[in-house]
Design brief:
Layout: H1 3-6, E1 7-10, H2 14-23, E2 25-30, H3 36-47, E3 51-59, E4 62-68, E5 71-77, E6 80-87
Antiparallel strand pairs: 1-2, 2-6, 3-6, 4-5
Length: 99
């Protein structure tokens, strides 16, 4: 799997931002087929930091439904994989540099 296929996007929530400051842990949405070794290599190559630890979690898909003017619409939110990457002490990842 190519490195451009592994990392999808960073997760920018209040909880993830708090972990960046206190624990040096960054959250990313990654490909479901990627393993921890591939994720570690992709982060180190793309951002130029040393990765200490990688934890992963799969968020399950959920059923979604809503009422609209056209009637009842029912669908499903897709499942995705999250990676929590801890970088070495004294290093940071600037997620807002490419904006």
């Amino acid at each position: 799997m190519r490195q451009s296929e592994i990392l999808i996007k960073p997760i920018l929530t209040e909880k993830a931002n708090a972990q960046q400051d206190t624990l040096r842990r960054y959250a990313f949405k990654v490909n479901r087929k990627a393993n921890k070794l591939e994720i570690k290599k992709a982060i180190e190559d793309f951002y130029g930091v040393n990765v200490v630890d990688v934890n992963t979690a799969v968020a399950p898909g959920k059923n979604k439904a809503r009422y609209t003017k056209a009637g009842f619409i029912q669908g499903m939110k897709s499942a995705y994989k999250k990676a929590f990457v801890t970088v070495a002490e004294g290093e940071t990842i600037d997620l807002y540099a490419n904006i």
